[in-house]
Amino acid sequence: MKQSMLYPRTTRTRRVADLCGMWDFRFDPQGCGESEGWQNGIPDALKMVVPASFNDFFTDKQSREYTGDFWYSTKFIVPAEWKGGHVDLRFDAATHRADVFVNGRKLAFHEGGFLPFTVRIDDAVKWNEENIVSVRLNNELSHQTLPAGTTRTFSDGTKISKPYFDFFNYAGLQRPVRLVVTPQEEILDFTVNHKISGAGAQTDYEVETSGNHDVHVSVFDEDGNLAAECDGKRGALKIDNARLWNVLDAYLYTFCITIHDGGEIIDEYIEQIGIRTVEVRGTDILVNGKSVYLKGFGKHEDFFVRGRGLDLAVAKRDFELMKWIGANSFRTSHYPYSEEILQMADREGFLVIDEIAAVGFFASILNFMEASTGKTSAFFDDEAVQTKTKENHKAALRELIQRDKNHACVIAWSLLNEPETTNEAAVPYFHEIFSLAHELDVQKRPRTFALIMNSMPDTCKCYSFCDFISLNRYYGWYMSGGYEIRDAKEKFIAEMNAWRDLKLDKPFIFTEFGADTAAGMHKLPSVMWSEEYQEEYLKMQFEVFDSYDFVKGEQIWNFADFQTVEGIMRVDGNKKGVFTRDRQPKAAAYMLRRRWENLKTDYKS
Ligand code: CKU
What predicted TM-score, i.e. pTM, was given to this entire model? Predict the structure, then answer.
């Protein structure tokens, strides 16, 4: 049976119990946990916070950098009054893979650390008694994992992660874990697609249930008035004077889906959904038929102590800062963000490019450096990439689209970040992934991938798969930085002219450009890493962006400073933030604010 990915919500027929808090925790470097029975309880366990990455709590390096198997476990009671329904354990994320045991029985395995999964535990639970859930996680990286990297082993047997990506390999139960109780006959999935005509809107929907009873859908406006209703598992909901969801002007209708037997409600699910359309036409990205210019950021889920653990307070601060600075969009670089963040984006009217964790497909721990030197890697030549990696990629894509398809904020899918595209072997791989996204998404949202520096107009073999082209470019930073920035501009223009001459008739957006900046470091005249240089660098980028009509967006790398591996290229992390890691502005933030306040949403339309 299809696994439901509906966000856990209590309704008249559903119950949700939060399992967040302090769990038992232990590293398992020898991989002996299962044979020693840790699925029944972890001996000599530490205590660990859920949700959080485990890494930054520790004061010793071996624990912070730990790579391999590690276990979480907690006890819970399932009240007998829930008998007769289904009981699911819902993990919003388990990074990067997990085996789940309930009362000692292995019930599930899930690969991929940034998407939810549920485990049906009906047959394993003890009602009104204590149950134990144990999870064996693993955070090793390989060419088959999303994100990709390698795992090395020191001579003493200790493993270390070598990511092919520029963010710390945080791991653990980084998002909430909940018990979800649903009726025997339940709503499994709900999908919407919107059309607009004049002042009216029509939402075509499909409901998937586990039985044959009747289905009803009603839609309420923000004042609680009934706006539309329809019977059946499929149908059309028509609203005459629809209030559309718009950029920074959100409006959310409440969709109430029920399975019923005459007057008796069997199951009920409620979701808030914005009605809007999105498409690419010529060089425009259109929301509700109107051209939008994207202003915003590439981000990370990253903060002190908690690592990549869900922190609603930090997420809230981020939205306040993005509104303050005049942004209207962000990319979920480089993995799907938590559902709560997309809910906030829906509420605030932000446009989101939803990225899957297909990052590091360049096979280099310094890809951000090496791609600027013309170096290539034959990542897609490998047989295992064409089989196992692709399988994992497709599974993640299915989960991503099932999870996020109804969000108004999600206006595009980013299917890879900075893959090696100069090699013919990438082409059939891309073809499959891009076709699958199109097939799965009833809204047929635009698809893209972020092009690394060596994916140039004359070398990239995959750009034509994109509905809009996303460039990650560092002219003036990785290439011709500092005083050489005058050359950087020339080179940048040469590349942009080459794109223009291809006459692709597609929008381009910059999904990355940025300069590392040490907050508080001022230099006159500027040098690289100073706050002055960040502004000079940005000024040059904007001059280039503004001179091409087909450039329809700018998302700076990065919203805030963030943690990476240690190394000669990073000073306690990546410092390209417009804000510091504790969310305070660098000088460039004021410059951006001046620019973006004056750039209309329909700039260049
Ligand atoms: C960023 C070629 C650019 C790749 N891009 C990826 C991103 O994850 C990095 O953090 C570069 C950077 O700052 O180097």
Answer: 0.97
